[in-house]
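Hi V.,

Quick status before I head out on leave. The structure for the redesign project is tokenized and pasted below; the design run finished overnight.
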């Protein structure tokens, strides 16, 4: 069956058809990898994957990123099970974010496999940080180059019963991570507006929260303008994947009274660089 890539919105997102994720040859994998770079988020319907098969597919993309604060499935240390029970009120991942910006080497990509989903609700929204950067005026782009953000994991965020229990070592303070606000995408070389919800991206490096907040609020609102977004509706068996280096995402918490279970794996990323900055090894040559 030929592989088909069907965009789902103007800025980002594509459904990939004609692929069995568990048995993909190298050429198809190369096409899928290209589709992820081009569309930011991709998904495959009707996949039947065991946890081992999901892990094997994830390993084709790179090493697995270990979340510094969340517990995994006991028999699959690569997988975090995201569960919301019918009685849970708080959502997980329900503000705009890019995975693990609060670490020095944030996740390259995240893979979510839908196990149980409500009949309606529980979609995930995505927004393209490349389009967000491109839409800024040249003057604003110039102003932002050189700024760096201070990012810290919010351990105190309200979480539902099962997800709250997954936060390990709650008393240990989280470590901050500093990143360029305008990040150079390590594979495409394109500039992206690398920002997160303001519970994590707290301020600009060297500026106070009070000084940083108005500009950060503007940038987050800008980065999530509807025309930069798409929305993935999950079905049991949907495998979705996004590029955290160019996309924000947000899980919609609009299905109280229903159950949702997803298996999540994140792929290890790299150190972040601004435009014009060189990786240390290259700079030393
Ligand atoms: C996440 O933020 O990683 C979870 C997204 C989702 O459950 O839709």
């Amino acid at each position: 069956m030929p592989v088909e890539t069907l965009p789902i919105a103007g800025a980002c997102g594509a459904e990939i058809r004609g692929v069995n994720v568990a048995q993909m040859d190298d050429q198809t994998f190369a096409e899928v990898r290209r589709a992820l770079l081009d569309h930011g988020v991709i998904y495959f319907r009707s996949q039947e994957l065991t946890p081992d098969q999901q892990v094997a597919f994830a390993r084709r993309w790179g090493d697995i990123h270990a979340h510094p604060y969340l517990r995994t499935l006991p028999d699959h240390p690569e997988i975090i099970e995201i569960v919301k029970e019918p009685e849970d009120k708080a959502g997980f991942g329900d503000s705009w974010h890019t995975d693990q910006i609060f670490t020095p080497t944030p996740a390259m990509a995240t893979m979510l496999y839908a196990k149980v989903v409500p009949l309606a609700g529980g979609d995930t929204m995505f927004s393209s940080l490349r389009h967000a950067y491109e839409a800024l005026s040249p003057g604003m782009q110039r102003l932002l180059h050189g700024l760096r953000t201070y990012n810290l994991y919010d351990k105190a965020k309200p979480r539902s019963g099962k997800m709250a229990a997954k936060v390990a070592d709650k008393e240990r303070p989280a470590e901050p991570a500093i990143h360029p606000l305008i990040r150079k995408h390590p594979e495409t070389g394109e500039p992206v507006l690398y920002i997160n919800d303001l519970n994590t991206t707290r301020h600009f490096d060297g500026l106070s929260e009070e000084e940083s907040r108005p500009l950060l609020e503007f940038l987050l609102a800008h980065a999530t303008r509807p025309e930069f977004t798409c929305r993935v509706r999950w079905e049991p068996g949907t495998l979705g994947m996004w590029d955290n280096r160019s996309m924000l995402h947000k899980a919609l918490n609009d299905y109280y009274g229903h159950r949702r279970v997803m298996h999540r794996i994140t792929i290890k990323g790299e150190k972040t660089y601004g435009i014009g900055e060189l990786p240390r090894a290259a700079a030393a040559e």
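Above is the designed sequence. Residues 7 and 14 are 4 Å apart (CA to CA).

G. will cover questions while I'm gone.

Best,
W.
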